[in-house]
Write a structure and sequence with these properties.
- This protein is α/β, with parallel strands linked by helices and 431 residues long.
- The chain has 3 domains: 119 residues, Rossmann fold; 226 residues, pyruvate-formate lyase- activating enzyme; 62 residues, Beta Barrel (OB fold (Dihydrolipoamide Acetyltransferase, E2P)).
- Strands 2-1-3-4-5 form a 5-stranded parallel sheet, with helices on both faces. Strands 14-15-16-18-17 form a 5-stranded mixed β-barrel. It has a 3-stranded parallel sheet with strand order 6-9-10.
- A hairpin with a 6-residue loop joins β17 and β18.
- α13 packs parallel to α14.
- The protein starts with a strand and ends with a strand.
- Bound molecules: iron/sulfur cluster.
- The site of iron/sulfur cluster has 10 residues, from α7.
Length: 431
């Protein structure tokens, strides 16, 4: 069969899509990027915001419009929260709940009677393993979360914490490395909770991956800013463990963090960053901030701006608060007017851009090994290759498609920032 796979939302959804892709190929099916040619379409939905839900519905309508013959299998957070609507109103032939999604290919094969021909299975090229020109493979290590942040729908959609066994994760990383992948990103819902259900820990997992695999670059997806021990920070002494962390702060006001039921307050977050910067050279921190959480006063907002400025994040993911039915925050009083949320978001975007320029400026003149990912046409019509430094700074180098630099780790001297101040321009020292 020809199968089209589509993921919305987080890296975890993408990691699941990549493992389904490998599983379907292993049964002799072909993966097609063209939805109109597919016999089966699989959609991994998202429900983190109202906008994500709208896009999930739109994706299912679009499938029916473009390819009404295709079978439609839907999984992910929206489908897990709204299975009836997904099946009836949106016409899914099969809905696979988040708790069973690791077995999606097996369930679809049985329930939809898919004809498997493993003898036709092929070993895919690196470039076809990953979507969107990326050369970093996302590897799922755990699912679910035991916490109940009041704004979070994910913990409701994905359930209790479940950790994949370490040998299974190492086997997947060795398989990916064997197929040419040079960087993997360990991802989950709450990876800091890895091993809570199996007597292990994130520290143990990372240490085992560094010991039992030869993957050149190991990176972590978002990590909640708590439950990170001293042993965790010592892991960064291994140069294969990338010195960048995405630590969601969400708000810089303790009173808001309390209403969010977050386990990390201003002082603890600052202490974590100070510790990281003490032990890890060139450490880059990025974060998530929710703007306009119910009741967010002007004073609380100014506390957020002050803490963001003081920490000096390398990048901000900014989310306008979105009411998620079923969460505790959805019943909180004093909603912040949309106009105020828009103004605060603009202010934070400007601050984020300034802090990003300050971060990039520190690295001009230095050289780093950059994993080159893809070649793109520039606004001036020229072609350039892009990739990331170990501490996740985006770098562009001149060169054309003929150079075939994708998936190579090149030593790049960082010459300057680009005009928009959101990435660095460099030269390949060995070219
Ligand atoms: S820790 Fe993260 S995943 Fe868990 S409830 Fe809070 S925001 Fe959601």
């Amino acid at each position: 069969m020809r199968i089209h796979l589509k993921s919305l939302g987080c890296r975890l959804n993408e990691a699941e899509l990549e493992s389904w892709s490998r599983d379907f190929r292993g049964l002799g099916h072909q993966i097609t990027g063209d939805i109109s040619q597919a016999d089966l379409v699989v959609v991994n939905t998202c429900a983190v915001t109202a906008e994500a839900v709208r896009k999930s519905r739109k994706m299912m309508h679009r499938t029916h419009r473009i390819n009404p013959q295709a079978k439609l299998v839907v999984s992910g957070c929206f489908a897990s929260l709204e299975p009836q609507e997904t099946a009836r109103a949106l016409g899914a032939d099969l809905v696979v709940n988040n708790r069973e999604k690791d077995r999606l290919v097996e369930i679809a094969t049985r329930e939809l009677n898919l004809h498997a021909m493993p003898e036709l299975a092929t070993t895919p090229e690196v470039s076809t393993l990953l979507s969107g020109g990326r050369q970093r493979a996302f590897v799922k290590v755990q699912d679910g979360c035991r916490y109940q942040c009041t704004f979070c729908i994910v913990t409701l959609a994905r359930g209790e914490e479940r950790s994949r066994p370490i040998p299974e994760i190492i086997e997947e990383i060795n398989l990916l490395h064997g197929r040419g992948i040079q960087e993997v990103v360990l991802t989950g819902v709450h990876i800091g909770g890895y091993g809570s259900d199996s007597g292990s820990s994130l520290e143990q997992l990372v240490a085992m991956v560094l010991r039992e695999t030869d993957i050149p670059r190991l990176r972590l997806g978002a990590v909640e800013p708590w439950d990170l021990s001293d042993a965790f920070w010592r892991l960064f002494e291994d140069p294969r463990f990338m010195p960048h962390l995405h630590l969601p702060l969400q708000s810089g006001a303790d009173t808001v963090l309390r209403r969010m039921a977050r386990r990390c307050k201003r002082r603890e977050f600052q202490a974590l960053i100070d510790q990281a910067r003490r032990v890890i050279p060139d450490f880059n921190i990025t974060t998530d901030i929710i703007v306009g959480f119910p009741g967010e006063s002007e004073r609380e907002w100014l506390q957020t701006l002050e803490l963001v400025e003081r920490i000096g994040f390398g990048h901000l993911h900014i989310f306008a608060y979105s009411v998620r039915p079923g969460t505790r925050a959805a019943t909180l009083p004093d909603p912040v007017p949309r106009q105020i949320i828009r103004i605060r978001s603009q202010t934070l975007h400007s601050l984020g851009n300034r802090l990003k320029r300050q971060t990039l400026k520190q690295f001009v003149g230095r050289s780093f090994p950059v994993l080159i990912e893809q070649c793109q046409e520039q606004s001036d019509g020229g072609m350039a290759w892009s990739g990331y430094t170990p501490n996740f700074l985006r770098v562009m180098i001149q060169g054309g498609p003929g150079d075939r630099l994708e998936n190579q780790i090149r030593e790049i001297r960082l010459e300057c920032m680009n005009d928009s101040g959101d990435q660095l321009l460099g030269v390949d020292i060995h070219s």
